[in-house]
Specification:
There is one protein chain. The protein is about 5% helix and about 45% strand. A hairpin with an 8-residue loop joins strand 14 and strand 15. The strands form five sheets. An eleven-stranded mixed sheet has the order 18-15-14-13-12-24-23-22-16-17-19, with no helix packed on it. It has a five-stranded mixed sheet with strand order 1-2-3-4-5, with no helix packed on it. A four-stranded mixed sheet has the order 6-7-8-9, with no helix packed on it. The radius of gyration is 30 Å and the shape is elongated. It is mainly beta. The chain is built from two helices and 24 strands. Keywords: Signal.
């Protein structure tokens, strides 16, 4: 008799362990299944309409809402033809706001309702809240939707010591979000802060040709344009204030940075009359398949523009009397 009870207990335990649990359904489709509207059939697979009110957990831990077959690559698969996902709505008081006494987890996602920071979806990148870029489409291209992805990056700070490309001096640089180009403002050692030049670097492993347009603004305005500015790979360079409809080769001569040269992109010296200019630059590659376009805004100021960059005026490699501002918009058409 004792053996019979033991066998019965084992059979019951085994059935319980390997059974599927269904709530509001006698036909569970996986390990745990809730049929919200009680509209699923007693046998077979529910229709899409019947699945729309279902919740399921698979034996692999995948969770489905609105589907009884969540994608195996997703921990959560939400399916609906007429509903969205509504995230937590929070009013951020600053870009570094902690939501609670527990540190924000990297990747945390919220919808900021404003008004201090612009409304929109934000994620925590480990040190601050970053807004998701937004774009809009217009059906004005033969029925096609034109959508652009815009990424913006900014850098601000003093000139700092550098020996890039064998030329010692002081610089501040910025790199495009895709990493393909960098731009810097640079003076060689013992050169006045007011004599800073802009330079561009192609970060690929081969030379690249760009279509370039740069302008300076102060009491007047001017600029330089190129159909084909050829940039060397991994070296600072410039057009040395040359406009041309033909090829400008910056891979050799005075237009490429060496231990003895000091090239410039656009007009030399980003100061005019001892005061900072505004610089506006746009460029893209000559590759017809490349849909990325870049826009740069730059300015540098100094409380002592006639001072030179050296260890006296730039202790610990930082020229504290200078301040550089860069911003780049990287625009990619779809």
């Amino acid at each position: 008799m004792k053996a019979k009870f033991l066998l019965s207990g084992l059979f019951f335990t085994s059935s319980f362990v390997f059974s599927q649990v269904g709530i509001n359904t006698a036909n569970p489709q996986n390990i745990f299944h809730i049929d919200g509207a009680r509209d699923n059939p007693n046998t077979g697979v529910p229709s899409s309409a019947q699945q729309s009110n279902d919740f399921i957990v698979t034996n692999n831990g995948n969770v489905g809402i609105g589907t009884t077959a969540p994608d195996t690559s997703a921990i959560l698969d939400v399916t609906s033809s007429d509903k969205g996902i509504l995230g937590p709505r929070i009013s951020l008081s600053s870009a570094t706001m902690q939501l609670s006494s527990n540190p924000n987890a990297t990747g945390l996602l919220i919808y900021n309702t404003g008004p201090i920071l612009s409304p929109g979806y934000y994620f925590w990148n480990g040190s601050e809240w970053r807004v998701f870029n937004t774009s809009s489409g217009n059906n004005n291209n033969s029925g096609n939707t034109n959508i652009a992805n815009v990424e913006t990056i900014a850098v601000m700070g003093p000139l700092s010591a550098t020996t890039d490309n064998g030329r010692a001096g002081y610089a501040t640089s910025i790199t495009t979000p895709d990493g393909k180009f960098s731009v810097r403002t640079f003076i060689p050692e013992e050169t006045a802060f007011s004599q800073v030049n802009l330079q561009i670097r192609n970060n690929s492993t081969t030379s690249v040709e760009i279509i370039s347009n740069g302008h300076y603004l102060w009491s007047g305005a001017g600029g330089y344009q190129q159909n084909r500015l050829r940039l060397p790979a991994g070296v600072w360079a410039g057009d040395n204030a040359t406009s041309s409809a033909s090829l400008i080769d910056a891979t050799t001569g005075a237009r490429i940075q060496t231990a003895s040269t000091n090239p410039y992109w656009g007009d030399p010296e980003t100061y005019a009359g001892g005061m900072p200019e505004q610089r506006l630059y746009s460029w893209t590659t000559n590759d017809g398949n490349d849909k990325t376009f870049y826009k740069l805004y730059y300015m540098m100021g100094s409380s002592t523009p006639s001072n030179v960059g050296n260890v006296t005026n730039c202790p610990d490699g930082k020229c504290g009397a200078t301040k550089v501002f860069f911003t780049i918009d990287q625009i990619k058409a779809q």
